[in-house]
Fold this sequence. Notes:
The structure holds two protein chains of two kinds. By secondary structure, chain A is α+β, with helices and mostly antiparallel strands. In chain A, 27% of the residues lie in helices and 33% in strands. Chain A folds into three domains: 2-93, no CATH class; 98-156 and 196-281, Phosphoenolpyruvate Carboxykinase, domain 3 (Alpha-Beta Complex); 160-194, no CATH class. Chain A is built from eight helices and 16 strands. In chain A, the strands form three sheets. In chain A, strands 6, 7, 8, 9, 10, 14, 15 and 16 form an eight-stranded mixed β-sheet that branches. Chain A is globular, with a radius of gyration of 19 Å. In chain A, 47% of the residues are buried. By secondary structure, chain B is of the alpha/beta class. Chain B contains 18 helices and seven strands. The longest helix of chain B is centred in the last third of the chain and has 32 residues, at 349-380. Classes of the chains: A alpha+beta, B alpha/beta. The interface between A and B is large, with 51 and 39 residues.
Amino acid sequence: MQxxxxxxxxxxxxxxxxxxxxxxxxxxxxxADVLRPASERDFIDFHIDxxxxxxxxSRPYHFRLGNExxxxxxxxxxxxxxxxxxxxxxxxxxxxxLCIHAGVLEKNGITLIMPAPPGSGKSTxxxxxxxxxxxxxxxxxxxxxxxxxxxxxxxxxxSLKNKSIDVLQARxxxxxxxxxxxxxxxxxxxGYMQPTARSWQQATQSAKATYVVLPKYxxxxxxxxxxxxxxAPLFMQLAANSFNYAAxxxxxxxxxxxxxxxxxxFEFRYHDADEAIAFMDTLP
Amino acid sequence: MNQVISxxxxxxxxxxPRLQLLLAAYRDPQAFCDVANASHGMTLWHxxxxxxxxxxxxxxxxxxxxxVLGKQRHQVPAxxxxxxxxxxxxxxxxxxxxxxxxQTLEDVFADAPYPCVLLKGVAYRCRGFAYAKARVFADIDxxxxxxxxxxxxxxxxLVGVVETGLSDYDRQYYLRWSHQQPPLHNLYSGISLDLxxxxxxxxxxxxxxxxPLLQNAQPMQGSILRxxxxxxxxxxxxxxxxxxEESHKLCKDIIDLHQLFLAIQPQHAELIQxxxxxxxxxxxxxxxxxxxxxxxxxxxxxxxxxxxxxRPLPYVNxxxxxxxxxxGHRRRIADLLWYLRGHWLKMGPWTLAYHMVAKSxxxxxxxxxxxxxxxxxxxxxxxxDAP
Lengths: 284, 387
């Protein structure tokens, strides 16, 4: 049995596993500092079990948090299962932070919260912006501190799917830093892109929320489309994209209201990535 | 249990944390803070959070730390409060949902010519016990005499409270052997309701008599729903704790017992009478013995004398101790014995043998179903082809 620690602020995980390669696989995605053994001064938020259990003749590894079962995985897609499992812990088992399913980036005090359904190109745009000087706060969880209203970073590798892996590799080359590939998952091929050095360095620095962007990639060539969204529909969009808005009850409403009042929201449809990146750099 | 606080030798990286830690924190928050903050860095704290999550005790612990520590609550690290928040939010939402659900039941049974008695967690809340506000409940337990169940279920069905998705075997299990109907669910609110006709399975050999419980249940003010007397609430909690086969909510059940005992303090003599009338003396003896030893409750002389004359069986104590404080093989053996004992009390030998074989088969089947279900869900999901 192996005990792996993941120091990914604001949550620290402990993985108890008998998977022989999991530690090596994680080491290809996370810096050594994130995977260092925990000291007794470190508070571990989630104790996870990722072990072999009998459940028929396939998918022997079960991801569990205490008594809660999340998913089963084969040896080959275990890395993806673990990453999804960590997301599941943050989305489901905490209501301290309001958690919105969104990518978050920051540059010169400007922050972009990008909530979007799968397939809208959120992660790809996130990855592109990150490689153009924006620091990544998260590709998955926009965590809002209920007291300050600030965005708390939750830096982990960006999860890219299928064609977007090729697109980014073609555009950025080796600098893309896609260090781990998992083939044949139910979502297809998943690639994990390393956050930039600056993103890791500032992984505990909160940021003030300024913009909420609802991105949509247009496959057919078209001009950039930007349209403001009023507060009420923006509230509903964010609530629909939040994992724990309902679980937080009245607190969720208050935090969300505070957030919506402090940001400008707009729809953003783009075809040309360079144009999209240039636009974000002009935001006041 | 004192050992937990003074020598937390069990708490090393990689060893399975034990439930005694949870009980120690509940029993004496100040002592727990002292030990946790003095020598062990964060280790005891995150073990506590891990256990409390499993036993659904975030809100209970938050309430306990808050009420005992008061202004000294900062002794509990912020990282711990951050997790307690999950439980605190849950009980708040449950309070709102419960009020709505009870209003529905109020209308459903307004003209029912039979008693409708709330049991367990919901009854503690309705009874107004302070700690119950921080107690998570899994479902609404409603006791109605068996002969009126057809009528009760017909009424419930009209407001969308119906039985859903149980396997044939489990359904038969409830109908043939248990003390309740197969669980009902409100299709609109998602809340579960267990319709009981007894507090212990009909297939059991325990001669528990619930007639006194029904007779003494009093309607809440302005309501048709009734609550058992305090003594009966306590006895039911004791029966539930000591005659069950499960161990995943053990701490919650022990805390229930402790809090109920504190809440009903002046009426201790009634406990003996009620236990005699219900033929629940062993359950009362186990409960008093446990409270005395583990929660350091000082029993009134009358109860002490009664307990001396009704000494509980020592093996039950051994089993519980292993479940709470044991580890490794001992803990696993205790788990198995507790499981067998619980079923044995509920069923008797032949039914038990049949159930063990059938249930093992079905459990295996359940895992495979889960695997199949995941596969099905996955293939239904479209791969997201972002650019």
